[in-house]
Structure formats: C-alpha cells, structure tokens
Design a protein that fits this description.
Elements (H helix, E strand, L loop, with lengths): L1 H23 L8 E8 L2 E8 L28 E5 L3 E3 L2 E3 L2 E10 L2 E7 L15 E23 L4 E17 L1
Antiparallel strand pairs: 1-2, 2-3, 3-6, 4-5, 4-9, 6-7, 7-8, 8-9
Length: about 180
Amino acid sequence: MKQLFSLSLLALILFTASNASAQADKSKRPSPPAIATQKIGETTITINYSQPSVKGRTIGTDLEPLPGKVWRAGANEATVFEVDKDVIVEGKTLPKGKYGFFMLMEDNTWTIIFNKTWDQWGAFKYKEADDVLRVKVSSTITKTFSEKLRYEITEQGVVILYWGDKDVRFTVKQK
C-alpha cells in the first residue's frame, strides 16, 4: 500500500513539474513571443509582444482590435514599448521608460497609447488615468496580407504594425 501511495505521489509530482515547465515555455503558445528592436541614433527602441494569427477570422469583427475597445496591441500579456532615452512620438514627448503599449481603432484612425502599467495580462487592468501619452495616426490597407501580427522599426524611427491587411505607422525621434 505504501508503495502504491509513493508511486502515485511521484507521478503527481512529475506531472505537475512537466505541466509547469510547459507553461513557462512561451514559445510553445499559439501566439508566440516576438521582439522588435532598433537603435535610432543613441536611443534604443524595443517592442516585446506576442504574435496572434488571423486564422481566417476578420479583424475588427471577431478578432482584435475591435472598434472603440482598447487592445493590448498583440496577444497574451500586454505589449511592452521601451525606450532608453526620452523620445518624440508624433511630435509629443515620451520620457524614457517601459510602457504598456495599447491601441484603439476607429475606422482608419488609430490611437497609439503608452500607459505606465506595462506588467499586466492583456488590457483587462488597463486604466486611461495611467496613460502617459496618446497620439492619433491613420492606417492603410496593404497589398501583402500578414497572417501573424508583426512589428518593424526602421532606422529612421518609423514603427510599423502589420496585421492582416492593416498597416499602422508612427514616428519616433530622438529628443
């Protein structure tokens, strides 16, 4: 009886350990993590995000972002936008730091949001009162469809979100 109990306990411990290990490996998620980084002069810009896939769904209808709702600008944890020096985003100052990076879509106008609460799951704890900066930009429709969400930062400081047939851009400059 003691042997059966010991074997059961050992099996439970091994199962729990392997399950915890699998959950810690974020690369195995359906929306894996990705990083976009670029040096603009002396300033480094980094975007940490997770890449959802469209999978035949319609962005804005049954897939985020949904019109009028704050979106985490990725999947899983909130997307994190980090700059190691003060910068100018679309003509407005953003102090150096780490930010929750959110977006709000209304037709072709997108509000880019930098929020002081960066360490959170999704946008569930998002509070507008914690916004550090908001800028409005326009989106365009691309000819090349992006199945996975992707960010690119050019050497000129143009940050581009590619998502489905959407192309959303904003400019970051050294202060």
